[in-house]
Amino acid sequence: MTRRAPTGAAVLQPATTMAITQAVLREWAELGFARLSMESVAKRAGVGKSALYRRWPSKQEMAMAVLADHVVPLAVVPDTGSLRGDVRKSLDALTEWMTDPLLSRILPDLVAEMARNPELAAFTDTVIGTPRRELARAKLLRAVDRGELRPDVDLELALDLLAASLYWRLSVRAADLEPGYHDKLTDLVMRAIGV
Predict the structure, then answer these.
(1) H-helix or E-strand containing 114?
(2) Which of 147, 133, 128 is closest to 90 using CA atoms?
(3) Per CATH, domain 69-192 is 1.10.287.130
(4) In a 3-state reduction of DSSP, which class is residue 42?
(5) Helix/strand/coil (H, E, C) string of 60-80?
(6) Tens of pLDDT, residues 65-77
(7) Taking the model in full, what pTM does it have?
(8) Dihedral, CA atoms, 142, 144, 148, 153, nearest 10 degrees?
(9) Are the C-beta atoms of 114 and 120 separated by less than 8 Å?
(10) How far apart are CA 124 and CA 67, in angstroms?
(11) Regarding the domain with residue range 11-58, which homologous superfamily does it belong to in the CATH classification?
(12) Model pLDDT for residues 122-158, shown as the tens digit of each residue
């Protein structure tokens, strides 16, 4: 038996999905995760709640899917051919992510919510943390293959080190990055991971 292709309201329209995505990010940035609701997102996007429920079964699934679609691609950094180049480009990408006008407000709220909600923390790790770390891990493994890094390098520690300094500087201290900061941080990361 052949299934008929969905028509009308059953089709997920890209323009509607984009409006919903922007509404989720703006509502979350303005209200925080705790006050984010399907109703407020639908109203801001100019759609009925059914348009949201056709895409996601819950607020958490909606919020995390939208955030993952928005931030995981920012971790994709082209292979520069060298570990130094990859580290430098990764720092640029992380900075872009952490200074995005919406994400810079969502990230601290997400971290706070994760401390209160273990289910959200696990879900966040699955849809954002792990995919982003796997992209970064691939860069380090390429460096091992090229002989730029020792095969016994502690990959988990190196991955933490890549993001930790920028997170602390931008999200916790809310400090500006002076000219040359990424170059100095690249040098420090390279020394710390044994290059």
Answers:
(1) helix 103-116
(2) 133
(3) no
(4) helix
(5) HHHHHHHHHHHHHHHHCCCCC
(6) 998 888 888 777 7
(7) 0.81
(8) 130
(9) yes
(10) 9
(11) Homeodomain-like (1.10.10.60)
(12) 989 998 889 889 989 999 999 999 999 999 999 999 9
